[in-house]
Amino acid sequence: MWTREQMAEQAAEELQDGMYVNLGIGIPTLVANYAGDRDITLQSENGMLGMGPFPFEEDVDADLINAGKQTISELARTSYFASSSSFAMIRGGHLDLSILGAMEVSETGDLANWMIPGKLVKGMGGAMDLVAGCKRIVIVMDHANKHGESKLLKRCSLPLTGQGVVDRVITNLGVFDVVLGGLRIDQLAPGVSLCAVRSLTEATLVE
Known about the structure:
Glutaconate Coenzyme A-transferase, 25% strand, 4 helices, globular, 15% helix, single chain
């Protein structure tokens, strides 16, 4: 199976020169480490365009953070603005790609990633705006939850963030595209068999 870092490396294959990209918290933030020499611009919902890499300890500026409250660095081309302008970018369809985490994804591309009923949450963040406004949505998550239950479902059981919004899912077992009729396997992680994937996937797998 792929590690978190290998999943992020797979997700980085989605990046293309000239893209404006938003990375969600968790595994998606690691994608920036594998951007290589691709000319992309990272956007943060809290009002930053052109995020730099995570800083070394001696370079940390506690006032410079991303939407996930992680300290980051700036670039020569970085610009700052109100969060209202940031969400206008998102809602206006100006972002090419968003890579997000998830609790559940359905076979029709529905996404649940913002709350679990009965548990305290700080808010939905920008997820609902991102899935509605970005041109392409890629999810990076573990294939099963801590109880060994599939997170790729026929139908999400948790409150939806967006309906029919997911284009691709990358898990520790492989890469799956949302297509008519279910999920199509694009790639399996090394050492992972089709039989193992079928046994851990509730969603319909199509050829």
